[in-house]
């Protein structure tokens, strides 16, 4: 989810399906997000995000100045994070992480109640591994347009890796959110920097830390973020998920506590968890598809693969048919539809989330067909043609410059696998 490397030109289909790391896994590819983006007057505009600043504070004249991150939410509430021992050269990178990168890690352009800002960033005060992993990720993003940040990103990455490995010998540190957060940030860093398998090693490390902590907790934002990386990454690698799901689903039957279902407050525009719940149910089928892909690459009988594929196909369409009409029947040109009153920012982000979910669903349909016909020997499947068209229509309607493209990369990735000899579609995929 998010901007930088770009979708590559379609390549010949392979049995593995691991064509490139350019899907939802690309969670911080944000170079295009710094461009000015102007929507026409009849579109539902998301206003620019709030200004956040890094300044120095001092409790009294005898104290040394402490760099402090001043955060102001869209609601007007503000809070301050002081970093008394931070190296001054690191200040701009932590500022960039907290004010920019954190907004695009899991949900598009969302900073109200964002736990990567409000919960994770303060932990960096006492965790050098987390501090330097955040700085590495921020420097890596900045290096996409300013090359002199590349060596700095590498330096912070090496420091974070060394500090994390040293800290894991302490059981308390190993169970902490700061350790898990650092491991996940290093995973994201590797995803954005290369096409090597190192990102998967960090993800495996995060898996081990989660298990060491007692297993995944559904209401923990780091577990939710891990599940997104795990499921998305398994689709790209075709290896199956590292932790079997659906631990990311919360309902009254399988919730961790004896009390009523807990409603997460993030993303803020989904105050009933309706949007997230639908996507989490779609993730169940994404995980099943990745497991089936792993089986298909093995010695499994093709007839058995076909039977399992048919079961997944039936299940995912049953989920889609029972999904709310606000998702299923959403028009791809919803931004341009006439309204008596413009959508609020929260309502707009909710619609954007539905568009992203529709794109992911279409990508899953393409992926399922790819498992059954990896080399494209069969005639084009009308269902796949329609899914590709849906992804491209959604991408064409999505405005650039707000981080909204990040939810479309999995669908675009799969559309790129399925599209051949269509210059217009290929150009849209590359630009997005």
Proportion in β-strands: under 5%
Distance linking N and C termini: 12 Å
Helix residue percentage: 40-55%
**Strand order of the main beta sheet, please?**
1-2-3
Sequence of secondary-structure elements: EEEHHHHHHHHHHHHHHH
Describe the sheet with the most strands.
3 strands, antiparallel
Low-confidence stretches: 1-64, 252-257
Average pLDDT, rounded to a whole number, is: 79
Shape: globular
Note the total helix count.
Answer: 15
Cα radius of gyration in angstroms: 22 Å
| Oligomeric nature of the chains | single chain
Tell me the total number of β-strands.
3
The structural domain count equals 1
Which structural class do you get from the secondary structure elements?
Answer: mainly alpha
Subcellular location: Nucleus
Pfam family, one: Fungal_trans_2
Keywords: Nucleus
GO molecular function: DNA-binding transcription factor activity; transcription cis-regulatory region binding
Polypeptide structure, described:
The chain has 432 residues and is mainly alpha-helical. It has one domain (31-431). Helix content is 50%, strand content 4%. It has 15 helices and three strands. It has helices at 91-99, 115-123, 128-142, 149-167, 171-174, 177-193, 198-212, 221-237, 274-296, 302-322, 325-328, 345-372, 382-397, 409-418, 423-431, and strands at 53-57, 66-72, 78-82. It has a three-stranded antiparallel beta sheet with strand order 1-2-3. A hairpin with an 8-residue loop joins strand 1 (53-57) and strand 2. The model is unreliable at 1-64 and 252-257 (pLDDT under 50).
């Amino acid at each position: 989810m998010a901007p930088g490397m770009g979708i590559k030109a379609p390549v010949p289909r392979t049995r593995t399906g691991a064509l490139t790391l350019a899907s939802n896994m690309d969670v911080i590819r944000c170079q295009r997000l710094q461009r000015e983006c102007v929507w026409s007057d009849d579109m539902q505009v998301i206003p620019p995000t709030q200004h956040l600043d890094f300044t120095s504070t001092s409790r009294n004249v005898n104290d040394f100045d402490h760099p402090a991150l001043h955060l102001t939410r869209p609601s007007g509430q503000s809070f301050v994070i002081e970093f008394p021992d931070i190296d001054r050269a690191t200040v701009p990178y932590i500022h960039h992480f907290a004010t920019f990168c954190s907004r695009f890690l899991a949900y598009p352009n969302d900073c109200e109640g964002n736990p990567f800002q409000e919960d994770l960033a303060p932990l960096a005060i006492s965790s050098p591994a987390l501090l330097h992993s955040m700085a590495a990720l921020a420097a890596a993003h900045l290096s996409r347009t300013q090359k002199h940040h590349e060596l700095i990103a590498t330096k912070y990455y090496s420091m974070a890796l060394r500090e994390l490995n040293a800290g894991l010998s302490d059981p308390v540190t190993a169970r902490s959110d700061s350790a898990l957060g650092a491991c996940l940030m290093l995973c994201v860093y590797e995803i954005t920097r290369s096409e090597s398998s190192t990102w998967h090693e960090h993800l495996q490390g995060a898996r081990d830390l989660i298990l060491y902590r007692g297993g995944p907790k559904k209401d923990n934002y780091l577990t939710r973020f891990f599940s997104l990386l795990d499921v998305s990454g398994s689709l790209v690698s075709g290896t199956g998920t590292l932790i079997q799901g659906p631990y990311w689903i919360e309902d009254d039957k399988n919730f961790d506590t004896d009390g009523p279902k807990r409603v997460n407050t993030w993303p803020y525009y989904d105050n009933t968890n309706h949007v997230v719940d639908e996507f989490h149910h779609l993730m169940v089928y994404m995980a099943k598809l990745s497991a089936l892909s792993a089986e298909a690459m093995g010695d499994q009988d093709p007839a058995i693969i076909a039977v399992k594929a048919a079961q997944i196909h039936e299940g995912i369409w049953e989920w889609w048919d029972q999904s709310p009409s606000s998702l299923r029947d959403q028009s791809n040109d919803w931004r341009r539809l006439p309204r008596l009153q413009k959508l609020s920012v929260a309502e707009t982000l909710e619609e954007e989330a539905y568009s992203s979910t529709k794109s992911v669903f279409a990508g899953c349909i393409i992926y399922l067909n790819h498992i059954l016909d990896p080399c494209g020997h069969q005639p084009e499947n009308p269902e796949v043609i329609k899914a590709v068209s849906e992804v491209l229509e959604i991408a064409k309607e999505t405005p650039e410059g707000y981080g909204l493209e990040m939810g479309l990369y999995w669908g675009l990735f799969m559309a790129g696998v399925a599209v051949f000899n269509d210059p217009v579609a290929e150009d849209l995929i590359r630009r997005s």
